[in-house]
Amino acid sequence: MRWVREEYYDTSVEVAKRLIGDILVHETPEGRVAGRITECEAYGGYYRGKPDDGSHAFKGLTERTKAMFGEGGHAYVYLIYGMYWCMNVVCGQEGEAAAVLIRSIEPLEGLELMQARRGKAKGKNLTTGPGRVAMALGIDKSLYGADLVTGPLYIEKSGEKVAVERSKRRNIDYAVYGKNFPWRFTLKGSLWISK
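RE: above sequence
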């Protein structure tokens, strides 16, 4: 069963916790690919009175970030290092600018298709890291702003209870405050976590 719109209306931190263990699905012309979300990071808002200066939305609404300012339940897709797409789940109400970066998944369906998209990548290197997730699942700029409730890219409930661990977000040393926010969530015991 897919997540419904209201399930995206919470804060990014709450949505991030609930995403762990659920399934990211992309139904593509080449076939269905899906994986259990094992790692994600929340962005936007405040932590202990400090603004999230690690968020793309910190400096306000731009052409790049407009999807992040939209209604929860849409995709915010952006390019890093000029070569890797990253997929975020937009959270909250319109104007709140909150999202959850999907950092890693454990492949469940469409492994051959993921492998073809990722070339020589094997084992954990297939889908551990946000750029790898997007490549394996065929996520690119064409899915910017995509509706996660009605479209071919969506979150499916796993129905399983999982243990979630919390730590500091990664690779945002440029952020004065945000680099210390404990907004990274991982599936306890999973091997499918980025380095």
